[in-house]
Amino acid sequence: MNAAIQQLNNAFSLIAPEAVLLAAVCLIFFAAPFLVNERGEAPVGLRHRWGCLSLLALLLASCVWWQSPPVTRTLGPFVLDELTWYIRGLTLTFGAILVLLHWNQADDARSAESHACLLAILAGVNLIAASNDLVGLFVALELVSIPTYLFLLLPRRDAPAQEATLKYFLLSIFSSAIVLFGMSYLYGATGTTNLSGIHAAFSAASDHRANPLVAVATVMLIAGLGFRLTAVPFHFYAPDVFQGAPTSAAAMLSFVPKIAGFVALLRLMVPATGAEQAMNPWTMTPAAIPLLWWLAVATMFVGNLMALMQTDIRRLLAYSSVSHAGYMMVGLIVGMAHEHQKADVLATVSPNSVSGIGAMLFYLAVYGAMTLGTFAVLIAAARTDKRIESFDDLSGLSRTRPAMALLLAIFLFSLAGLPPTAGFLGKLNLFFAAWSQGTVEGQESYKWLAVILAINAALGAWYYLKIIGVMFLREPINRSQQDTVIETPSLIAAGLCLVGTLGLFFLPGWLWVPIQSIMP
Amino acid sequence: MESSYPILLFVAVLVGFVITNLIIIHIVGPRKKTAVKQMPYESGMDPVGDARQPFDVKFYLVAILFLVFDVELLFLYPWAVSAYLDDPLRANQTGVPVELRGTVFAVMLVFMATLAIAYIYAWRKGVFRWR
Amino acid sequence: MPSLLVIMIFLPAIAAVALLLLDPQATAVRARWVALLATVATFLVSWGVAAQFLALPQVSETARGPVHPQLVQRHTWLDLSQAGPHSPGVKLEFFLGLDGISLSLVLLTTILTISSVLVSWTAIKDRAAQFYACLLILETGLIGVFCSFDILLFYVFFEFTLIPLFFLVGIWGGPLRRYAAGKFFVYTLAGSLITLLGLVSLVVTTVQANPGLTTPFSIPDLANTLAEHPLTPTVQFTLFLMIAAGFMVKVPLFPFHTWLPLAHVEAPTAGSVLLAGVLLKLGTYGFLRMLLPMLPDACLHTGLPLIGAMASIGIIYGSFCALSQNDIKKLVAYSSVAHLGFCMLGLFALNIEGISGGVLQMINHGLSTGALFCIVGMFYERYHTRQLNELGGLATKLPLMGVAMVFTSFASIGLPGLNGFVGEFLCLAGMFRAGDGQGVIFSALGAMGVVLGAWYLLGVVQHAFFGPVHLPAEHHGPGHEPIADLNAREVAALAPLLGLCLILGLFPQPLLDLIRPDVEAVAKLYGNVRATNPNAFMHASLNNHASQKNLPSVALGSEVRP
User: Which residues of A touch C167 (CB under 8 A)?
Assistant: First the structure.
């Protein structure tokens, strides 16, 4: 009893960074209406204050995060292991970049609520990483979804944004319902909602894996979380939502739900991570891996092939984010297979192979830098009256704004996986992991996964190259110098992403070493 | 699994009853359509006006606010009733353990404070203004 | 203070960044002088590195493996091991070094870049600063490929060269430049990705068979391990096909050559010079570094018939395509396909003559075809046409250019006394002795290719430069100077190339001595293979010196070095 009491008392300290973020959210929501008068007007420049407040909140949360190292896993509702620590760092860093992207996107009157929504989304992702309970996981997933609906709509409330928000809203609640349904089956099979307890039940009785309830739960959970990952066939909302939403919202959607989805899948399907744990590896059912295999293949191909046909930049970036989700799923599957194999066949795994999950987490960080950098340049290079929408808006950018064109070219080369950018290292790690796993007896399908990854990387290079070609090889259409405005926050964000993209190529160790400590 | 068979049977009977009735009505029932029978039902009187009128969003907002604060009460009731029970003679009616009472109280305060902030937000945004 | 080698690799890139940052609106005049300064400086530094290399003491044959770089710079880049203090590290490294073959290719690169800067002097006016910056970044990438001895670093520089070349062809090229740039980029990238998979697979397979190997990405260590414990023939076969895929596209070998004529024709002159002179050698260098030392069984049993066939078909096919061309630049492009066929025949002869001939042919082709593209660029700048039916008797108006063209054509054909002859002869002689008589057909076809080469090149010389005078309408008006013969700058661009053609034709031995230790080390692997039963390769080892007696001796000039 005392242990339970102590755990409950400590639970708050385990989620201290999220508490800071949510306190900031409450503060902003409390203060916002007092600064806007009844007609909906706000003092000019109010949005700068909200932006600074958000950055301050993120800074405070980062200090708290840095001071709280991983602790041993308990039976409480929250857990703070190496994975949580890493994801929190990722979210807080890229959250700061998202705040910078969003700085000028919402007008003064509505900037407060949208910044608060962004902070709430980041807190939600952190809570997913910190959750040790099915209910907590679901609440965190909803904490990510519901502010997203607001975030999509608030900056511009025109018809495309409304359409995007409505599509996202409907599909999101549908998928959340499916996730909850799957969780209920998991509870029914094991009798507890605590993830540690579920794990104990699985490792105690190995016939749980063949339980039909668990199979249904697996399929439901993958389907519901696949929506968030933009896995095929749950990706259909992505192009329309990216096209209609404001650019900073599209930037957020291209990255943050992926963290949410992958971390949720990791928590559910792969055993407790963390160096101190000597857990028996398990996956929910053996059926999860083939299902994810086919989903990854379909995601990669559909993402790349559909992107080849697009003429709108935002739809192209949506499909490209679909394909990158596919690449990361490869890492996830290889990692799951590795863990599954460790359970069945002991100690024949080569100690020199790259962990698939490590590769996926590294690619997540690299992908964040490159994709947020791309959107940052799109915001910074936009004209005062018109966003960058089609290829014509970008044509000849190297003549009118050469620095922007060069930045965007670097980010696009990174997305394509060309050296000397971090995208190349990310793909290389995935290749290495997939091929190493494929050399194990009976698992040659992972070699095919590596081959498909290579084919898709080549396909992807084509449309990224098309954008670069439009910028550098074509002449500008209807652009004059007066139309452009210097967007400082987006430029700062683009600069930070550039440092990440190039820096992670030359000095990958400082991110790779913490990732290695996540795997048992 | 075996204990859920009765529920399955119950559901099957229920659904079967409904479907059977609908089918029988469709097959056996007469089909004489008159103008009066086809009119929408409005408690015996003739319907007036178009059913598809837009209604003011203030009704919706009031309904949502009512829902939120009603659910808050729903969470407050069990806590208020059972947290401070202290009857040593009746072993199955104990409240929250003494060590946790402070924490639970603080949690409930935070809960109410969060909803109070939402209330203030709604107030300042003009939701309560009946235009 | 970084070593001269590192300075040599990164000096052009630093100059390019300085050019872009300090003076983004630089006029063409200023930009080209900066570029010339940078390339000449790199050239001088490369001679400094060469002096350092030649001053090093000789490494005896038993102390070195198949690949042995010197002047080494090694720094850990990324440790890919699993967590935990007990698992050994699998490391990616910044591993830079130089051996004889690398050095000769680096010197080729530096001198060709100077020529390409000189050739673009007046041709590039729009966005000149960016043009020269791309050229310099390309030079860094090319030198980096030749100096890297870590598989991943090699691949990084290999892929990196695509980016500046894409911009060079796409922005400053001919009418079809966007299509050509895109096709070149994606075609080469697709092949390279298969090569990457093959290399990753090679590393993984070797590490799993030899758990003690902690740096499997380093080419010397990998080659040493594979020399002692070679992989099984079936595994080698798959790996060979995968790794060779990208290099086959790059060389290019028939039938993967379709990107080459397009890219060459649409590229600006400097782009064509570097593309033909150095970039194609990346493919052959890749074969020499990645495949020959590591997968000897596959190279002998699969590579020799397959690549030999593709190369000899390429020679004949490329020559016939060149014969039918009207555009002189496209003709020279197809001749590149043919010449690199010779180079591949030499490499896959897998004996000392052949491999020496292959390396020599790489240098020779770079010099002579680089000069050919320079000359084509020079008369295109004057007449704005490259069509053979519009040109005739140019030598009457431009005698100096005529001399240069004749000289270069003979070097390219393989006239004895010029460098082409030495390279082609060694390649064909090596292929003749290759395998167990399989090579005779390939070398016969190659010899036919020599005749065809003479046919089309002398045809161009005769029709365009001699014969009845038929000059296209000269452009008059402000901006166009009257057509004049080669000026001092153009002579300066061509003279070093032609001079080296002559010198290497008369005195090839210094170059052969430079590459001999490395070529011998690779050929030794195949000497062992042929001496024992070809099917029982797995039992051969490097220490079996008894089989050395069966090697044919190099019948060229000076005595065998002890």
Answer: 472
